[in-house]
Amino acid sequence: MNTLVENFTAARRVGTPIVSINTPDPAATIATLSESLNGCPKLAWDCANGCVGLNVEGQQARIEMGLPQDPDEDITKNNPAALLTAFVKKMPHGSVLFMHMMNRFSQDSGESKEEKAIVLQAIWNLRDLFKISKRMLVLLGPNFKLPAEIASDVVSFDEPLPNE
Question: Which residues contact residue 131 at a Cβ distance below 8 angstroms, ignoring those fewer than 6 apart?
Fold first, then answer.
């Protein structure tokens, strides 16, 4: 049985542009997967903090993408569509972006149908662009069920709850 890290590494090796991971603990998932991502820019987005660099390369990538240095001015907070449409296309070759709670922005939740459609279209629009530049978008969330609009373009993994 392959582990999440083995599956993720294999997906990255073949240039998979979009991955979703069902995870009960996104922070632990990112920490575990980051160990397999040596030297590449790593970024993370969540609706409270916006987009942050997880390593020196990720912090530099954030600047190169044109995001404001002051986190309070980050227009991507609570707006994944802004990040995906305006900034992510500028991510450096080989970058990985982890996006938290994306199940909330792609499934039935409090967001409007229009907001969900924009997020789903923005994710789909990155597929070919990311494939040719070895970039990866990692969608994280619990009980993640991909909508039909992107299901055939996203490789999905499940991270089980930890055992003893």
Answer: 15, 16, 17
Burial code of 147-161, b = ≥16 C-beta within 10 A, e = fewer?
eeebeebbbebebee
Q: Which two tokens stand for residue 147?
A: 């909508």
Query: H or E segment at 43?
Result: strand 42-46
Type and span of the H or E element at 53? strand 50-53
Tens digit of pLDDT for each residue in 116-143? 788 889 999 999 999 999 999 999 998 8
Q: Residues 64-81: pLDDT tens digits?
A: 999 988 877 888 888 888
Q: Of 39, 38, 9, 48, whose CA–CA distance to 138 is shortest?
A: 9
Return the DSSP state at 92: P
CB of 144 within 8 A of CB of 102? yes
Instruction: Report whether 138 contacts 97 (CB < 8 A).
Output: yes
The phi and psi torsions of 53 (rounded to 5 degrees) equal -85, 135
- Block residue for tokens 């993640």: 144
Q: Which two tokens stand for residue 156?
A: 């999905």
> Rounded distance, CA 147 to CA 62, Å?
29
Q: Are 20 and 145 in contact (CB under 8 A)?
A: no
